[in-house]
Amino acid sequence: MASGENDRSFGPLTELVTAGRDPDDSYGFVNPPVVRGSTVVWPTVADMKALRGRYTYGRRGSPTSDALCDALMRLEGSDHVSLVPSGLNAVALGLLATLSAGDHLLMVDTVYEPTRKLCDGLLKRLGIDTDYYDPLIGSEISGHMRPNTKAVFVESPGSLTFEVQDVPAIAGAAHARGAAVVMDNTWATPLFFRAHDFGVDVSVSAGTKYLGGHADVLIGWVSATGQYASAVKQAHGALGLCVGPDDMFLGLRGLRTLGVRLAHHQASALRVARWLESRPEVERVMHPALENDPGHALWKRDFSGACGLFALELAPGSDEAVAEFLDGLELFGLGYSWGGYESLAIPYDARAVRTATRWAPTGPTIRLHIGLEDVEDLIADLDAGLARYAAAS
């Protein structure tokens, strides 16, 4: 498939299987080859000076990177995709491509905590000022914009607490003032939320999660449209960013099964979330696909699906009770990241990472990632864990 073709000619699952591969280019093999290389040689000095040829240096692209970038461009509906070594690297590239010294950034208060540290550390040192805003502000964000506001960052649902933002309203207000919209779209993936269709200029994703899907790769990507496509490409080249060929191959392999895996994650997570809603030990479940979730109407309007990540607030209890709940789980690993085949759980406290809004749960909060195990086994594991929590509270 030719890169840069933004209109889907097939359904999304067909696109996942066909995009970014051409058996005629791969000696008939279904999967593109893994090309490992740095140096590219030219036949003559004239060819070298004119940079004739498809490739010039390994860092600047290879058949393997082209295959993954072309496939992701089809999925995103964008003009350009750059590959980077991690999701946080994708966030950094997206922001550095849209901001300069003296600029002002509006950052959603529910953002992934390492992104906040990037803003309050490196970006501040580079002369970029960041203000945090309420994720539910919608078009009223225009009241927080300054003459030098050059980017508005959204992440929907919010990290840890899963608030859904009105991305089209925010994008409309930002564009009216000449600011770019940058989005962390890792939770939904472009399969369930095609960010550029909703006014996002630069979409960043941690492919470490669902693109890889097997907890064995660190990779990210930045997708851009319009004027921001060249800005991202230039910043990517200036920073010398590149991804190893084996990681690109794992990303390509994961891409082919992304649709069927996400469907299973979604169905199992919703079953677990609805079961948790019925438990007396649970005060509330934070999952935008649940009908009683505060963000459900916006989620239903804009998203075509949900992944396996959500959170719950427990009835009041001690730290020791939380440890009893989590330490005894058999099928849920206690680990960061998510998006792999395995189920995970972490305790968290979002109060310390809010500055523009107040987060005040009445009990401990737990984030769950529902993997590909039999959902009945996961529910039984959580059932025993909640019983331990109740006994220890």
TrEMBL record:
EC class: lyase
InterPro entries on file: Cys/Met-Metab_PyrdxlP-dep_enz, Cys_b_lyase_bac, PyrdxlP-dep_Trfase, PyrdxlP-dep_Trfase_major, PyrdxlP-dep_Trfase_small
Annotated EC: 4.4.1.13
Catalytic activity: L,L-cystathionine + H2O = L-homocysteine + pyruvate + NH4(+)
GO molecular function: cysteine-S-conjugate beta-lyase activity
Known cofactor(s): pyridoxal 5'-phosphate
Keywords attached to this entry: Lyase, Pyridoxal phosphate
Family to which this protein belongs: Belongs to the trans-sulfuration enzymes family.
Name of the molecule in the record: Cystathionine beta-lyase
Species, as recorded: Chelatococcus sambhunathii
Lineage: Bacteria, Pseudomonadati, Pseudomonadota, Alphaproteobacteria, Hyphomicrobiales
Gene of this entry: metC
